[in-house]
Amino acid sequence: MAVAVRGLAAGDSVADAITARVDIPAGHKVALRAMAAGELVRKYGWPIGRATVDIQPGDHVHTHNLATALSGLDTYAYEPTNPEPLPATGNRTFMGYRRKDGRVGTRNEIWILSTVGCVSRTAQKVAAEADKRFKGRVDGVYALTHPFGCSQLGGDLEATRRMTVALAGHPNAGGVLIIGLGCENNQLGPLLESAAHIDPDRLRSFSAQTAEDELEAGLEAVEELVRIVEQDRREPCPVSDLVIGLKCGGSDGFSGLTANPLVGRIADKVCAAGGSAILTEIPEIFGAERLLMTRAESEAVYEDIVGVVNDFKSYFIAHGEPVSENPSPGNIAGGITTLEEKSLGAVQKAGRAPVTEVVHYGGQIRGTPGVALLEAPGNDAVSSTALTAAGATVILFTTGRGTPLGFPAPTLKLATNSSLAQRKQRWIDFDAGRIASGESMDAAADALMDLVLATASGRPTRAEENGEREIALWKRGVTL
User: Fold this and answer.
1) What are 249-267's pLDDT values in tens digits?
2) Whole-prediction pTM value?
3) For the domain with range 109-229, which CATH number is right: 3.40.50, 3.40.1000, 3.30.70, 3.30.470?
4) Contact yes or no for 144/111 (Cβ under 8 A)
5) Closest by Cα among 339, 197, 361 to 278
6) What's the CATH number for 3-67?
7) Which of 37, 211, 325, 416 has the highest local Cβ count within 10 Å?
8) What letter would DSSP give residue 347?
9) What pLDDT, in 10s, does the model give residues 80-136?
10) DSSP code of residue 231
11) Could you tell me which residues come within 8 angstroms of residue 303 by beta carbon, excluding any fewer than 6 positions away?
12) Alpha-carbon distance 274 to 268, whole Å?
């Protein structure tokens, strides 16, 4: 027989199976009571879809008898709730790099960025040689490249430029080299004008078409930066200087029970201390957006949340796609049936702190204590790149299926189940499945907070140890 956890909230009609019989895999849902066809099915206290046939107590509830109730645009009302007090974090610190603008980095790296995909290999060659040549003098030299920057127009081109500038100004980059080609749409001149706020002592650039030897030019520029960056030192910094990115990928039925609420505890701790947390993946809050709207710090922020949600739904509709085209095959295999269910589990990463701002793609957070909602899709690489560009200096990435991907900001992978943590020890930094085995959420949160602070102080993540570091840009416009 399957053993099911009790309903997560009063009125829930399903729960998740922890140990399983053959026909109800672990992490999948079991009915707690009878439900008629057409009835709303509830989990986490909210609807996750409608029963498509009559369901009896003890039945397996999944794609064969449950379907999404999402359709198109929704209307909303401003109904703020009184925020609950957040947990005190004490006077904890981490060892970070304080930059001239007051922000604090968790790494002291040199990043080589490209304006266009044509010079991606050039940037990679320069980074590989420079990392060997200057090993130990900085935290590493890395190329962050993409295939875009040419054959783009209007807002699409501007988004590529904004993202490049945002990454160039990131506090984890002690120095930045931007390599252009010369004839691309994403011209180096206008890009550098947009980067005028970045410390010029720590920024170098050149166009490959005008350099006599682009590889030597790149190595000379990196050497100049190394001489400056290697003087930087870590210093004690309060938790209020942390900016954590919140991400889930390859979710399963345990995501909303273990890893995501655990990350929510960390978000609460950081926000309570005066730091910031960034939640993104807008299509993966559809069906749960009202939970965030009730936490809007002001009516203006509420209106911004409504705007970014409906704009993203309109983006799907304009392309002839349903707003509910989610979860993925891996999510479904792991027990998630509808987008509402996935979203209600995903938003738990944001804890209980107020939502203080909405940031559009390519923008940076103001640094106001609380949760920032960032416009970006659910794609792991695109959204994690956007989190970094927005200012995240550590990313907490929950997963029930596993992925080796890494991103520019140090990314901690949290397994939602212990089986994944045991099988993929080279990928996983923290086993949140221990909660399903009986460990208290508070004890797990204390252990994870220790790991977050150690990572912010320089401890490498599994992805960093494996050399996994990627960026991806969100291309929405036409290609010439």
Assistant:
1) 998 889 999 999 999 999 9
2) 0.94
3) 3.40.50
4) yes
5) 361
6) 2.30.130.110
7) 416
8) G
9) 988 778 887 778 999 999 999 999 999 999 999 999 999 999 999 999 999 999 999
10) T
11) 78
12) 10
